[in-house]
Amino acid sequence: TFSRHPADSDAMTSCIVRLGTRWNRHRWTGRLRNFSVLPGPTAERPDLYVYDLCPFCTRARMIFGLKKIPHRLIFMSYDDVETPSALIGKKLAPILHLHGQDPFPESLDIIKRVDEDARWGPPLLQKASGREDLKLFEKNHWPLMRLLIHTRFVHAYMPDLTFQSAREYFVAQHPVQGPNGEERPHQDEWRSWDQAKRFSWYQQNLQRSDKELIPKLNEDLKEAEDLIFQEDSVSPGGVGYDDVIFFCRVRYLPLILGLKPGPKLEAYIKGMSQRCDIPLLTTVQLNF
User: Fold this and answer.
1) Is-cis flag, bond preceding 94, omega within 30?
2) Distance between CA 244 and CA 235 in Å, rounded?
């Protein structure tokens, strides 16, 4: 199982300190209204705007850790529309801002741009293999993983969900299946409900986790043991885009207290977390 441990490794990234919390290596914006407080990226240190809860943002963060690239990591509040809109014209993350260039989004575009930039060394990532077993694993098991993770996000301390308004915004944007087996509603239907009903479905799914959902996921995760080539890479040939796609999902599993991953999956998650300098969420596990 994933034990609680200090999640932060020695920082390879530049930082602005926020005192008093474990997020002391990173800049946290809240609702950023005045961009003059941020000096902007330098030639040696780009800015990366992210949500901690976003798998696509985890993808973008991976390349910076793997290549040990100093950067400023900026967590936006999840209900902050102004900051990403000012940067790229819409609410989207991750966003990379390189010195002298316009900010741009899309995780895979960011990874490619950074990995192929000569100032940070030769390209590191292996090309995507197109493995069907990895695609099938995500298709079959991400819905349950997502349900267990999302219902915990709104109770755990996350830098992008600090405000109640941010938690409400997150719930309104992410439907979950019904506590009695009802199908996951479409976005339009979900948003037509009042907030109390949406939160009720989140809470009821959380309450049935221990006896029903976590045991099922424990059984499902046994399949991952046959998917992982070694601790350092999910596929032969070294770390690559297969890891970008796989790790960005399984990184959130340690949030689920009581989960019992197999030895290869646990070693892979811990090892990739250290290599990418991306903390796991063991320190914010819920006691239920």
Assistant:
1) yes
2) 11
